[in-house]
Amino acid sequence: MGTNQGQAELFRAQSHLHKHILNYLSSMCLKSALQLNIPDIIHSHGQPMTLPELLLALQIDSAKSGHVYRLMRLLVHSGIFATTKVPKGEKEEEGYDLTPSSRLLLKHNVPTLSPFVQAMFYTTLVHTSEFLGDWFQGNELTPFHTANGIGFWDYLSQNQEFNTLFNEAMISDSSMINLVIKDFKSVFEGHNLLVDVGGGTGAVARIISESLPNLQCTVLELPHVVENLTDSSNLKFVGGDMFQFIPSADAILLKLVLHTYSDEDCVRVLKKCREAIPSKGKEGKVIIIDIVLNEKNDGHESKEAKLLFDVLMMVYFNGREREEKEWEKLFLEAGFSHYKITPLFGPRSLIEVYP
Questions:
Q1: In this structure, are residues 34 and 117 in contact, taking their beta carbons and an 8 Å threshold?
Q2: Of 25, 99, 162, 271, which one's alpha carbon is 20 to 30 angstroms from that of 46?
Q3: Is the CATH code 2.60.120.10 the one for domain 2-103?
Q4: Would you call 259 a catalytic residue per the annotation?
Q5: Using CA atoms, how far apart are residues 4 and 277, in angstroms rounded to an integer?
Q6: Are 198 and 242 within 8 A, CB to CB?
Q7: pLDDT digits (tens, 9 = 90+) for 44-58
Q8: What is the reported pLDDT for 276?
Q9: Residues 327-342: pLDDT tens digits?
């Protein structure tokens, strides 16, 4: 009996390893589904699609019917799509339908994460992850340096195709903020001027400025990012370097900025933020939207997503995801006195930091 239990444990371990070894195929199947435009095809059909209907819409040779079935079978198992019964005359056939996950991949929906997913599947990024082991044995700053000979931000500035894709990815990710901003208006209310540091092309600042028309918003970004962007009545763009200078404001916003940097660089940025906000009279604050690791309270899927983001920061940048005590250390080193963390929906939290 003991021998049988030992064998069963070994086979379970084998299956566990197989799953992790082959997990990249799940990602590539998702990439294929986007490449083939399957989520939008099902959505446009207006109801669940049978396999023959999907093949016809995809304009794929019927000889590959079995292959498409196998692709969809894995994506159904992964929760990207679902199956349901579709009436066909007097019979019922299996049809493919969207799930909440695949609805987030619809290209023309708001919000959509389709550009974000496409950016993460960019060949250079996928290729870079293969160099993690080499990087541990070398002296380069990041695995991205090991794989590509330059850092992520330099690569971004030199590759217009990826630069465009990356900016679209950040805009699509920011669109999720629109779902909750109305619930957190109080965080921004009572302030006259907000500076969105590292705010890209202004996706989040635009959402905030439209929700709070009396709030003046400024996006601080590298000059080449904002040079062709147009100001509005309560939103303007300023080219600059956050390590050198941050314009004065009642509140500073840092959305998914600090997790791309080392602790030392985070303290440098936070000190600049501290200089930019008032410390007497009307109290200013720094508003951070970022991941906070909480291994005790995070559910399994949320915890895994956060840990994967942490490795992502290690592979492409010199950054990391942080636990609350690690955030607190940065705030105190930068001269702040207290903070408040409010979990948002999804993996991010909202952190208010005060002088």
A1: yes
A2: 25
A3: no
A4: yes
A5: 67
A6: yes
A7: 999 999 999 999 999
A8: 94
A9: 999 999 999 999 999 9
Distance CA(125)–CA(194), nearest Å, equals 33
Spatial contact of 121 and 169, defined as CB atoms under 8 Å apart: no
Tokens of residue 259, six digits: 């997790």
Task: Please confirm whether the linkage preceding 111 is cis (ω < 30° from 0).
Answer: yes
Asked if residues 254 and 225 have their Cβ atoms less than 8 Å apart, the reply is no
Write down the pTM of the prediction: 0.90
pLDDT band at 228 (very low <50, low <70, confident <90, very high): confident
Per-residue model confidence as pLDDT tens digits over 285-315: 999 999 999 988 888 889 999 999 999 999 9
Residues forming CATH 3.40.50.150 domain(s) in the chain: 180-354
Compute the distance between CA of residue 340 and CA of residue 141 in angstroms, rounded to an integer. 32
- Residue 45's CB is within 10 A of a number of other CB atoms, namely 16
pLDDT at 210 over 90: no
Dihedral (Cα; 304, 307, 311, 313), 10-degree rounding: 120
Average pLDDT over residues 15-23: 94
The 10s digit of each residue's pLDDT in 91-124 is 899 999 999 999 999 999 888 999 999 999 999 9
Where in the chain is CATH 1.10.10.10? 2-103
CA 329 – CA 291 distance, rounded (Å): 16
Query: What are phi and psi for residue 242, nearest 5 degrees?
Result: -65, -20
The one catalytic residue in 224, 259, 300, 338 is 259
**What average pLDDT does this structure show over 260-280?**
93
At 65, give phi and psi (nearest 5°).
-55, -45
**What is the assigned CATH class of domain 180-354?**
alpha beta
